[in-house]
Amino acid sequence: MMNRRLVHLVARATIGGRQAYTLHPIDPSTFFHDRMKPSGADDGTATMEEFQPPPPAMTFLGPDTEPQDMDFMPVGDKGVLAVDCEGSAALYSASSQTLSTIPMLRAPKVEPIFFPVGDSRLYVMDRKPRRDPRRCFLSLIRGRESGLRCRMAWHWRSLPPPPYLPPTRWDDDSFEDDDDDDSDLDDDRQAMVDDGSKSSMVVDGELGDIAGHTVVGDSKIWISTAGAGTYTFDAGSGAWAPRPLYWPLPFRGRAEFVPEHGLWFGFSSQAGEGWNPVASYLVPLGSWRFLVAKFFETREWQQFKDGGGDYGKCDNFAVFAGVELLPKAGGGLSMIKHRSKRYSHVCTAPDWVI
Hints:
Elements: E1 7-15, E2 18-26, E3 48-50, E4 58-61, E5 70-75, E6 79-84, E7 89-93, E8 98-102, E9 112-117, E10 121-126, E11 137-144, E12 152-158, H1 183-194, E13 210-216, E14 220-225, E15 230-234, E16 239-242, E17 253-254, E18 256-258, E19 263-265, E20 276-286, E21 289-303, E22 310-327, E23 333-344, E24 352-353
Parallel strand pairs: 3-23, 13-17
Antiparallel strand pairs: 1-2, 1-24, 2-4, 5-6, 6-7, 7-8, 9-10, 10-11, 11-12, 13-14, 14-15, 15-16, 18-19, 20-21, 21-22, 22-23
């Protein structure tokens, strides 16, 4: 039996000329056959069905000003956090079908990555943390916060940046006392450059970008950078630690750790002929089952009727599939493919599956 009963698809739309995002709750059990090992599921003979998501349970409008971008992250199994490019945030609960306001981010996130830890904790980090080390790493916590008459409320807490970044000041309670003066931060960067023994840790370009990330258990966050090594963050102690010998994580993007197997699972970069991969999601469902969603773009070059050149005709679609991992009698694992369904969408940017 699967532990997770609901997966969310967030699709882009346009309402009155304004960017909108519709949230569709999906029952992942519909991507699995009733039998443990369906005939033809692992030999490539299963046909791909067409899939249309159910009606939206909620619609989010982007900000009034450009850009109108938003990002979406899971909170627990049934919560979805929406954050826009200005730092405004709201939390949707699928269980109660309610929307709660969340304190505004002091600094908007750019290409954020998220780390769900436990049932209700969420850690958020910039994929390029070097842009603003003082505000690059946050946690969303529901608890009692000073100044709010000791009532239970959601609030953001700033956390220490990864140790490969230049040392900076940071506030471990809130953003209230944080100022906008970056002169000390610039001085720290220059001091790091001037110190020859530490110059190899200064990251420019894409060297400090987070290339791979995952969560282990309910306490360990792992990040792997393009050139500064691999680090772990202990959510219990709030401390970072480097991995020895700059060992890189053997995947790119997000990987899911499955305690039943003691293994990480991610994606390969291979795709079908003519299919350009745009984004991939791997959602663990429990009981050794996953929902896999891969977004693709196909481009067919055609000539204008007047012979004035070529243009690309694009088709954007996603493939959803139910996948099950089972132990083999002699050891190892076998992958059982259940139902595969194709979802056609018109937006060139990928949707979210969380």
